[in-house]
Backbone:
């Protein structure tokens, strides 16, 4: 997938810019139901992705009762992306997760590149 091109000849920011609220993960970690709601999916969808290893709970909430699990803001972004890819492209969950992994890796590499260029 390539970024949209501007018709004026200058490069434009991609239209698929991620819109996410940055949360203080320690203070505002989400519950299972809150994560499902944030993705506009049901809790069973989230549970299935957790069982398949496509989503992770925070380190503190990785065991025990699902009502005690907590999810970071990074997991919210990942879950939203998975849900979007599955719905938009009728993608298999594993394919959506692979695509999400690649998107996250590209973002990390771009951040490293910006850091190196700033030196």
Residues:
């Amino acid at each position: 997938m390539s970024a949209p091109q501007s018709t004026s000849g200058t490069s434009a920011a991609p239209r698929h810019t991620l819109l996410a609220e940055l949360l203080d993960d320690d203070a505002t970690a989400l519950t299972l139901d809150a994560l499902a709601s944030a993705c506009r999916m049901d809790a069973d969808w989230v549970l299935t992705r957790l069982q398949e290893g496509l989503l992770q709970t925070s380190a503190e909430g990785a065991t025990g009762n699902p009502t005690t699990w907590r999810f970071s803001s990074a997991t919210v972004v990942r879950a939203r992306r998975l849900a979007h890819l599955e719905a938009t492209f009728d993608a298999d969950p594993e394919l959506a997760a692979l695509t999400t992994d690649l998107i996250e890796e590209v973002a990390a590499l771009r951040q490293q590149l910006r850091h190196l260029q700033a030196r």
Q: What stands out?
A: The mean pLDDT is 82. The CA atoms of residues 85 and 112 lie 26 Å apart. The two ends are 30 Å apart (CA to CA). The chain has five helices and no strands.
